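Hi V.,

You were right to ask for the full record rather than a summary. Here it is.
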Amino acid sequence: MSKVFPRVSRRRSLQGATVGVVALGLLLWWLLPLGETPPSGTIVFSTGTPRGVYQEYGERLRNELARDMPGLQVKLLNSAGSQENVERVATGKADFTIAAADAVETYELRHRSGADRLRGVARLYDDYVQLIVPRDSKVDSVADLRHKRVATGLPDSGVRLIANRVLRAAGIDPHKDITPMAEGIDTGPDRLRHGKIDAFFWSGGLPTKGLVELAEKYAFRFVPIDGDLVTKLHAGGDAARYYRATNMPETAYPSVQHGTAVPTIAVSNVLMTRKDMDPRLTEWLTRTVIKSRDGIGAHVHSAQLVDLRTAIYTDPLPLQEGARRYYRSMKP
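Predicted structure:
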C-alpha cells in the first residue's frame, strides 16, 4: 500500500525556511559578528609555568581563537606568574595575560612603568592559596612553618607575593624565620617528595595539574589557612583587600582531602591588556573567551566559572574599550 504524505504548502515551507534562517542568524551573531572579517596579525599572550593553570588555559584559548580568527597568530610566552605577567603587558612585552587582582593592584600602587595603561578584559576564575606538606608532617598551621624550609614561589610570581603576606600575618618574617626556597609548581612537588623542602605554597585554579600529578605518587596534605589570618591580612590594607576567606572544596583533590574542605584564601584572576590595544581585536577576543567557557572548562576545570554576568567586573582595572563594546552588545 502506498503511503500518502500530507501536502506542505509553499507558504508554510517558506515560513519554515525563514524560521531556520533567523535561528541560524542568531547563532552566528553569538559566535561571530555578521559581515565582519576576523582580525588578523600576531599577539603575544603571557601565560605562566608549564604545569600551572595559566599555561593550560592559554593553550586552550589559543585553540579557540584559531577557530574564530584563523588569521591571528597567538604566541604563548611562559612566565613566573602574575607579577611578571603584569609587568610584561604594562611595558609592551606581551599584549594579553592573566594575573591575580592583588598583583595588579600592587603594580599600580608601586607606580610601576605603564601601570596607567593597563585595562581589563574579563574576570575569569579564582585562585586558591594551597599550602602543601607531607602527610606525616607536624605542620598544622602557618605558624608551624617557623624554622622550616618553605618554597614561597618564584621571585616574580603571584605566589611569592601572597605567600610572604600570609607568613607575615602569621607573625613569621619570610626572610628570617624560615629558609625561603624559590620553587614554583614545576619544581616544588618533586622537591617536597624527595625531602628537599618541608612545605610549599601554591596559588592557582582548582585543580592544578602539578598537584594532581603529585597526588598520584606521593602522600601529602593541605595546611588550613584560617579566617583569623585573612582578617590580619585585611588589616594591612592595600592589595590585601582582594583576598577573601573561603574553603577549598573537598572535590578539588578527592584522593588527598578525603571528603574534607580546607579553609584557605581566594583571589580573583583578571584577563588583561593595554589601553592602546586594537579595540576590535579585543572585542573579538572577549567574545571568544566567554563563548568558549564550556569547551575550555572541559579540560581546565576552573574555566567553568567564567560567566558573562561577572566577567565585566575587572577591578582594579577599568574595561578596555573593545571589551566594553562586547559587553554592551550583549545587553538585552
